[in-house]
Amino acid sequence: MKIRLILALKEVSEDLEDGKKFYNEREPGIGDYFFDCIISDIESLKIYAGIHPRYYGFYRMLSNRFPFAIYYSLLKDTAIVAAVLDMRRKPAWIHQKLITRTY
After folding, report:
1. pTM score > 0.90 for this model?
2. Cα 26 to Cα 21: distance, rounded to the nearest angstrom
3. 46 Cβ partners below 8 Å, 6+ apart?
4. Is 38 exposed, middle or buried (0-12, 13-18, 19+ CB in 10 A)?
5. Cβ atoms of residues 63 and 45 within 8 Å
6. CA-to-CA distance for 26 and 57, rounded, in angstroms?
7. Is residue 5 a contact partner of residue 77, using CB atoms and an 8 Å limit?
8. Which CATH architecture has domain 5-99?
9. CA gap 47, 80 in Å, rounded
10. Secondary structure of 65-92 in HEC code, one letter for each residue
């Protein structure tokens, strides 16, 4: 499937800021690297959208560099990113986050 547009829910920016803050607290500068890597992963949806397994009603793409997952849906030629969540969290926490994300 050819994706022309990638949209992100407003909560995704909060997810990214939380991750960036987490990594910057461990070592300054790593948060910026985290952010750049996740954005690169999201941009790769233009090529790879739809090939990932589904969890909780969303496609789930695992980040290449960090233990985070990008949850997204497809609508025609658009990928809608619903969440970028830390995979080290409890599955119940992840599920709760995802059921509150609608567009």
Report:
1. yes
2. 9
3. 3, 4, 6, 79
4. buried
5. no
6. 33
7. yes
8. 2-Layer Sandwich (3.30)
9. 14
10. CCCEEEEEEEECCEEEEEEEEECCCCHH
Return the DSSP state at 35.
H
The residue type found at 49 is A
Query: Can you tell me which residue has the tokens 């992100």?
Result: 8
The β-bridge partners of 62 are 69
Strand ranges of the sheet holding 58-62, from the earlier edge strand across to the other edge? 5-8, 78-86, 68-75, 58-62, 54-55
78, β-bridge pairs = 5, 75
pLDDT in tens, the chain (103 residues): 789 999 999 999 999 999 999 999 999 999 999 999 999 999 999 999 999 999 999 999 999 999 999 999 999 999 999 999 999 999 999 999 999 987 7
H/E stretch holding 41 reads helix 30-43
Distance CA 81, CA 56 (A): 14
